Amino acid sequence: MRTIDWAGDAVELVDQTLLPDRCVTLRVETVAELVAAIRRLAVRGAPALGVAGALGVVLADGDPAQIAELRAARPTAANLAWGVDRAAAHLREGREAVLRAALRVRDDDIAACRAMGERGADLLEGDRLRIMTVCNSGALAAVERGTALGVVQTLHERGRLTEVLALETRPLLQGARLTTWELARMGAPHRLVADSAGPYLLAKGEVDAVLIGADRIAANGDTANKIGSYALALGAERAGVPFIVVAPESTIDPATPTGDHIVIEDRDPEEILTVRGVRLAPEGTQALNPAFDVTPHDLITAIVTDRRVIRP
Ligand code: MRU
Questions:
Q1: Pocket perturbation via mutation, ligand 1, pick of 116, 136, 266 by most ligand atoms within 8 A of CB
Q2: Among 10, 42, 66, 136, which residue's CB has the most CB atoms within a 10 Å radius?
Q3: pLDDT tens-digit profile of 259-303?
Q4: Residue 213's pLDDT band (cuts 50, 70, 90)
Q5: Whose CA is nearest to atom 13 of ligand 1?
Q6: How far is the CA of 120 from the centre of ligand 1 (A)?
Q7: What is the pLDDT of residues 69-87, one digit of tens each?
Q8: Ligand 1: does its nearest atom lie under 6 Å from the Cβ of 264?
Q9: Residue 174 in marked binding region
Q10: Which domains does the chain have, with CATH numbers?
Q11: Residue with CA closest to ligand 1 atom 6
């Protein structure tokens, strides 16, 4: 099953807001629908956003206003604008050329995820590994297999995975809802833990490596990823546990010099104040909802891409 694909004359994507209860494929025929799907995280994760951006340019049929809106639908993941630009570079050659370019983005992502899985598994030392991860960096965040969770899948296929500790990832619970769903489907042993348990479990020696994805990697290696990643990096440094970022080259943004220049998406405070429609805090409580944080490059042991291993 592919998370996102082109089908006839529309984009088809798994609606991730409904998982794990229901696995429903959404057919998206207009840029407005695609932008709405991106904003409500029906499609999410940096590589999948790159493919959505590229396929969305086909839906835009050359309209610059729609292409600009799509490009800016979410600010932090570098891949969205990158995917839009890769397809839009062929606008003058006509729709078929744009579609071919968008399908190349999809196919390149599938190949990149496979390559990252192999490279990441080769890099990690040890026969039996206990991995900690945050958010969802699996097939649902890409087209197939994913980035950090793609490494987990490769480790599992090689018989080298003891267990994954998946952080639940408040407020939208990508870890609890999506990562556990994917790990169960691949038959990989896993347990769900509260986000705040991450650094403690690292300190206790329960983890051999932290593997995370990335939304944007600045030129100096500073890396934006789901909120909570920075706390894990600090905990991993203190515990002497490798902290490894797995992301395609398309997530590296040489135009952004450092993490300070990365735009962090602020999402609706309601996502903090409620869980699936149930209010948690007293009426009138204010909330802050940064969706990502930045891990400085000196806390990162290695960045694994589809082409290389970078050691900041
Ligand atoms: O807000 P989301 O769910 O789009 O955030 C996704 C993440 O933070 C992922 O870890 C990141 O995109 C890398 S996915 C391969």
A1: 136
A2: 136
A3: 999 999 999 999 999 998 899 999 999 999 999 999 999 999 999
A4: very high
A5: 213
A6: 18
A7: 999 999 999 999 999 999 9
A8: no
A9: yes
A10: 4-111 (1.20.120.420), 117-310 (3.40.50.10470)
A11: 45
Distance (angstroms) between ligand 1 centre and the Cα of 67 equals: 22
pLDDT-derived band at 1 (thresholds 50, 70, 90) equals: confident
Does the C-beta of 250 come closer than 6 Å to ligand 1? no
The reported pTM is 0.97
119-172 per-position pLDDT tens digit: 999 999 999 999 999 999 999 999 999 999 999 999 999 999 999 999 999 999
- The reply, when asked if residue 46 is annotated as ligand binding, is yes
The answer to whether 215 is a known catalytic residue is yes
- DSSP characters over the chain: --SEEEETTEEEEE-TTSTTT---EEEE-SHHHHHHHHHTTSS-SHHHHHHHHHHHHHHHTT-HHHHHHHHTSSSS-HHHHHHHHHHHTTGGG-HHHHHHHHHHHHHHHHHHHHHHHHHHHHHS-SSSEEEEE-S--BGGGSSSSBSHHHHHHHHHHTT-EEEEEEE--TTTTHIIIIIHHHHHHHT--EEEE-GGGHHHHHHTT--SEEEE--SEEETTS-EEEETTHHHHHHHHHHHT--EEEE--GGGEETT--SGGGSPPPBPPTHHHHEETTEE-SPTT-----B-EEEE-GGG-SEEE-SS-EE--
